[in-house]
């Protein structure tokens, strides 16, 4: 039995909502984005090749619509309007504080990393699907998820930024080298 185009659109709506929330960080804007993406898909349904990855096609339409909306300078990012259902829990007070911190850390991630992390981890998409949606190589999709996880871990454990130790060591080595050059130049001038 073949599934109709409209049935596939209806079936993918929950995943589109998750992606839209990850992109916009605003419930109302996410719903508008999903609606616009579905309208675009319905008007372009003749361009969909049956037998190809419908989910990747729809996620790509949604992502492209989001980018188009950003270019039009529409107000789509309101960090304070994170839906309660996204991080809903009946956990003790400490867990709610951790979830609030996680929410803030997610909001600080670059858009491409946050999108890859949400779709890859929460939605369970493969790296190939992430790459198809983002229009990048599979290795790039893997890197985005890895970097997002590593950065979240650093922020959640209290580190300021991943890689700061390496940068501090490089800066210290550069200062020593410059200091040595200054002392050599001073001894030559005498």
From TrEMBL:
The answer on whether this UniProt entry bears the keyword Transcription reads yes
Its Gene Ontology molecular function terms?
A: DNA binding; sigma factor activity
Q: Which domain of life is it from?
A: Bacteria
**The RNA polymerase sigma factor 70 region 4 type domain, residue ranges:** 101-152
Supply the InterPro entries for this chain. RNA_pol_sigma-70-like, RNA_pol_sigma-70_dom, RNA_pol_sigma70_r2, RNA_pol_sigma70_r4_t2, RNA_pol_sigma_r2, RNA_pol_sigma_r3/r4-like, WH-like_DNA-bd_sf
Keyword annotations of the record: Sigma factor, Transcription, Transcription regulation
One biological-process term from Gene Ontology? DNA-templated transcription initiation
Where is the RNA polymerase sigma-70 region domain positioned along the sequence?
14-74
Per the record, the similarity remark reads: Belongs to the sigma-70 factor family. ECF subfamily.
Put simply, this protein is called Sigma-70 family RNA polymerase sigma factor
Q: Which organism is it from?
A: Acetobacter cerevisiae
